[in-house]
């Protein structure tokens, strides 16, 4: 938590995830795979301009048109299929992302179901759970692994073990879960890059990384 408060003091509240609806978070979680958020924003704007950010409309949209609209996010052939799959899962099981049955389903059961959807990995599933459905479910990404490996706090590569490490050592608070992940991303984009700017790092007095 000391690291969390240092990052929060440096960067302020990030207020993730930038979306107007739960389903928009789901769409963003698929589109952000292997690309920058700026590219995702362009793709989401294309969908919004045509009023397509609704589950049934994405399902009814032709695959070729969907590919064209999300092209700015890259890997559009794969992502169009993945978006269709996760949307079909939501509609077939719950109707939409606002359904009370979805809101009440136990987190572990829902996580297993999401992971069974083609194209939904652990990071994507946890992002949907945390930011779309307000579940206390920590998201682990490559930034998290990079920063905390350099700090000497983790050596694990296993996703679920890292996730458990965080959930066992931070406040059991939804907003902390959301902000911590966002702050890690911000810090790694600005400072703890592949070639880190250690002289600017607010964590350098507790970091074990040697260039």
User: What do we call the CATH homologous superfamily of the largest domain?
Assistant: Hypothetical protein, domain 2
The largest pleated sheet is described as:
none
- Our estimate of the beta-strand percent is under 5%
Q: Please tell me the CATH architecture of the largest domain by its name.
A: Orthogonal Bundle
Descriptors:
single chain, 211 residues, mainly alpha, Endonuclease Iii, domain 2, Endonuclease III, domain 1, 12 helices, globular
List the SSEs and their pairings.
Blueprint: H1 2-11, H2 22-31, H3 37-49, H4 55-60, H5 63-69, H6 76-94, H7 100-104, H8 107-115, H9 122-132, H10 142-150, H11 159-169, H12 174-190
Helix pairs in contact: 1-12, 2-3, 2-6, 2-9, 5-6, 8-9, 10-12
Descriptive overview:
By secondary structure, the chain is mainly α. The chain folds into two domains: 2-14 and 138-200, Endonuclease Iii, domain 2; 22-132, Hypothetical protein, domain 2 (Endonuclease III, domain 1, Orthogonal Bundle). Helices cover 60% and strands 0% of the residues. The chain has twelve helices and no strands. The longest helix has 19 residues, at 76-94. The radius of gyration is 18 Å and the shape is globular. It starts with a helix and ends in a 21-residue tail after the last helix.
């Amino acid at each position: 938590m000391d690291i969390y408060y240092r990052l929060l003091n440096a960067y302020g509240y990030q207020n993730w995830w930038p979306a107007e609806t739960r389903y928009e978070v789901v769409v963003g979680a698929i589109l952000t795979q292997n690309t920058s958020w700026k590219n995702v924003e362009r793709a989401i704007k294309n969908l919004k301009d045509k009023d397509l950010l609704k589950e049934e409309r994405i399902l009814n949209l032709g695959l070729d048109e969907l590919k064209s609209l999300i092209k700015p996010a890259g890997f559009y052939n794969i992502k169009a299929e993945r978006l269709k799959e996760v949307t079909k899962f939501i509609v077939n099981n719950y109707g939409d992302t606002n359904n009370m049955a979805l809101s009440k389903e136990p987190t572990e059961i829902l996580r297993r179901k999401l992971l069974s959807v083609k194209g939904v990995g652990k990071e994507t599933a946890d992002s949907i759970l945390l930011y779309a459905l307000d579940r206390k479910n920590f998201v682990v990404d490559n930034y998290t692994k990079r920063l905390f490996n350099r700090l000497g706090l983790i050596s694990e590569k296993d996703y679920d073990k890292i996730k458990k490490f965080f959930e066992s050592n931070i406040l059991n608070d939804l907003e902390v879960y959301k902000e911590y992940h966002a702050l890690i991303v911000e810090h790694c984009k600005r400072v703890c890059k592949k070639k880190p700017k250690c002289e600017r790092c607010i964590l350098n007095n507790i970091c074990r990384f040697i260039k």
